[in-house]
Structure formats: structure tokens, C-alpha cells
Amino acid sequence: MNHTITNDSGKPREVVRLESKLAKAPYYNSKGEEVPSVTEVTDTLPKPGLKYYYWDLGRKGVSLQSSKDHYTGIGKIAHFMCELHGTGKIPDLSDFPPSQVSIAENAYLKFASFWDKEGFQPLHNELRLVSEQWGFGGQIDKVATDAQGRVCIVDLKTSKDIQLDYWIQLSAYEQLLVENLGLKLDRRMIVRIGKEESETDFDVQEKPSLTGYFYCFTKALENYKALKEIKWKFR
Asked: What gap in Å lies between CA 181 and CA 209, rounded to an integer?
């Protein structure tokens, strides 16, 4: 349950628990029909990086579950802290192991330094939208203006590198912004917040256009719907 505290100026600040954000509500179009999320669609795409990840775990003699528990925990905490940056809200991380929180805080500090250096001013945070035209929904991490007043979309990732499907996912988020808010984006960026202690485990990449990636997304959406139809007809 969320609650509030006051800062030095006496103004209330909301304290947010991570658990309250874990359950993702479904998306519905204007007719009340449930539509897939962007990540449900992109989950159908090939992820070649996972093959190396599984091989590396086997080489190190680490079980998949223990690795997943450790790094997923760090990733969720770091992502959550970055989501709240600039919102005036405070994360409540009391239910997580201090060792995970410590690593996540290190990752967050790298993000906060980047964010403040760019002079970002938030426009939207954790914005949920639905595309009536294409039939999908998504939750956008951050939309902001930079120091030059340019409109930017920022997608946060807590992975070892930036994968192709991340850009396909980001292109769908841009479609949601254009379709619902009429926003014209000037910058499209993925911010990779690594989960290692190293200062170099942080990466920011940008692309001037995502048109080709959105074409890929529409084809993946067709594939997602076809697979769902097959499962329904032949289950």
C-alpha cells in the first residue's frame, strides 16, 4: 500500500511500493475488446542473445532459476527507481535483499546522472495507451523534453546489451504517442541500465527514425494474432 511522507520543505511525497506495479493490467480498445500488449507481440520474435546467456550459465555451473531470481530482482529494482526519477515519488524497497538494492542503486545513479546532464523535463511517465488503428496497447517508460526543448521517448532496459527487438518495441510506443497524442518525436532512445558494478555497464543509443522497425512490428502483430487464432481453433 502506498503512503506519503514530507520532505524538508514540508511538501508531501508519495512512497510507492514496487509490488503495486508488478501486475500489469490488460489493455482494451474502445469496444471493450482486449488487445495484446507491445511486449506480448515482441515476445514472439527471435531472441538469439538468450542462447548465449543459457550457454554461459551452464559454463559457470549456475542454475537458470538462481540467476533469474538474482538478476531479475536487481533489474526490477533498478528499473523502478529510474521510473520514479523526476516524479517526486520515493521507492519503498524494504521487501528486497539489501545486496540487490545496493547493486540496483549503483545502476540508478548512472541513469540519474545521464538524465540530469541531458536536462530532461518529464512530460509523461509510465503512460498507458491503446492503438485503435492497429489493435495493441503499451506502457511507455518516459516521455520528456531535453535541454533544447526536443521531445524524446526514453525506454529503459536492464539487460546486458541492446537487442533488435527493443527498437521494434520502441517503434510501437512511438505509434501510440503519434496516434493518441499527436506528438512529434525528435529523439528516440533506449537507455540500458546494466546490473553490474562496472561504471561502463551503461549504454544510451538513439535512432533518427523507426519506420522500418514499425513495419516489422506490424508483421509480428499479424503473426501474434494468427498464432492466437490457431490455438483457439485447434486447442
From this structure: 18
H or E stretch covering 205:
strand 202-206
Residue 232 main-chain phi, psi, to 5 deg: -70, -40
Q: Give a yes or no: residue 198 inside a domain.
A: yes
Residue 95 lies in a domain: yes
CA distance 52 to 57: 9
pLDDT in tens, 97-141: 888 888 889 889 999 999 999 999 999 999 999 999 999 999 999
Rounded distance, CA 120 to CA 76, Å? 23
**H/E stretch holding 121:** strand 121-131
Q: How many domains does the chain have?
A: 1
Residue 4 has pLDDT above 60, yes or no: no
